[in-house]
Each structure stands twice: as structure tokens, then as C-alpha cells.
Amino acid sequence: xxxxxxxxxxxxxxxxxxxxxxxxxxxGGVLGTIAVAGAAGPANAEPVTETIEMPTLGSLDTAGLAxxxxxxxEASQQEALDQSLESQENAALQKAAKEAKKAxxxxxxxxxxERAEKARAEAEAKAKAEQERLEAEARASRDRExxxxxxxxxxxxxxxxxxASDSGSSTGSSDSGSSTGSSxxxxxxxxxxxxxxxxxARAQVGDAYVRGGTGPNSWDCSGLVQAAYAQAGIDLPRIxxxxxxxxxxxxxxxxxxxxxxxxxxxxxxxxxxxxVGGGKYVGAQNSSTGVVEHSLDWDTPSGAVRIL
Length: 308
Fold this sequence. Notes:
The protein has 7 helices and 8 strands, in the order αααααββααββββββ. The strands form 2 sheets. Strands 3-8-4-5-6-7 form a 6-stranded antiparallel β-sheet. α5 crosses α6. Among the domains are: 69 residues; 119 residues, endopeptidase fold (from Nostoc punctiforme) (Alpha-Beta Complex).
């Protein structure tokens, strides 16, 4: 039997070059050993007629190698999968960190805006409270002064009663002249927008005074002035010191119906009223008097502004 007798004739899968080289080396070593043994034998030795069976290529153990290769491939696949998962996790963490940072910045911005709005509201409330306090103090001061004036006037009238009866004719003459002077101040009747403002203000005389009141049956000083000017289509601010800061400053000796009278400084007034002509004004004074019409000398204003 030849040394190639056991090689199958049917086709087999192609083997790698390294495996074929290994097997060829084994076969070559076996053949070399036989050749050396033959040369060392006696010259008259009989020819070797026994066929030596060569190991077949299939006799080598390839199962372990295939298993190792499969295990290596599986390990490489698992490592690639782990790296992919790690990359996805890192990307998700970075995205979450960015979104958290953005959300925190938005929350900080809203909190700052709320703090600013709260501070503004507190400042406005404080300013309003201070303005109301000043107005209350001013009203109380005017009330005290008017009480003192009434007390003094009553005392003077009682002490001069007998003198007035003795000089009736001359007093009558003097009073007549005074009335004439007063009527001369009322000869100029308001017209146009001023007439609307004056008419509205006088129509509210007798209404109640309520702090913050804007009508229709109760008013505070600036609420009445604002409503009166609205009758003429003129929008005024709500607060007294804003109203007295508008228009043009005029002297008390040059007043016209519809002018706004103020008490205090022009940019810091605590009370306002409307001049209605004839040396008189209409204003929402206080809770005890309500809306009244008085002469300028009853409570002389600090100044006046003209908007018409």
C-alpha cells in the first residue's frame, strides 16, 4: 500500500497555509527517517515490502483550535458590544448634564425675575404707604388749624357784637362793598373744557371722602381731580404728587377755573383740589367733611398748575 493510499479523493474545505505546512513537515520527517534507516541496513538486505501507513491530515486535533478561535471571536464581539454600550452611556450622561445645566440656569433666571418683581412691588407699596401717611398727617394738621380758626372767629364775633349794633349803617356799607368785590371775581364764567371740569367737581359736593375712592359717590382728593378732568377727555395720573407735577406752574393771583391747586411742594404734594372760580375751590378734604367747596383763604394752597 502506498503512503498516499489513505488520502480521500473527495473534496474538503480549503485549509490554511499554516496547517498544510505543519502537516507537510510531519510527513517529511517520517520519510526522512525511513530513508536513513534504509541506508544504514546491510547491503544485501531484502527490499522493504511492508507498506508504512502515513498519518492522515485528518488525524491532527483541530477541534481545540476551532474552539479557541470561536471563543476569541466571541470575546472580541462582546468587547465591541461593551464599548458601544459604554459610548452610548457616556453620550446619555453628557446630554443629561447639559439639560440639567440649562434647566438650572432657567430656574435661576426665573427666581431672579421673581425677586426683582417682589422688590419692586414692595417698593411701590412702601411709597404708597408713605404718601398716604403724609396725606393723613397733612389732613390732620389742616383740621387742627381750621378748628383753631373757628374757635378764634367765634370768640371775636361774640366780643364784637355790641360794636356791630352801634355801627350798623357803616358796617352795612362796608359789607356791601366787600360783596361787590367778591362778585367781581365771579364775573368770568368758565367755558369749554374748564366748564365741564368745574361742573363735574361741583356736582360731587356732599359726597363722602374715602381713602382711595374714585367715585361715583365717594372720593379721595386725587380721585376727584382725575375724574373731573376725565369729563374733558384728559387723562391724569392717579396720585396727587404726579398730578401737581404736570402742566405749567401758575401763581395764586392769576388763577383760572379748572386749574389744579396743590398743598406741599409741586413734586411732593400731599393734597390737590380744583379751582372753580370766584376765589373758591372744590376738593375731597377728609372723612369728616367729605367733598366741599371753600374759599382759598379757608385753607390756602401752596401753588397751582394749569393743564388746559
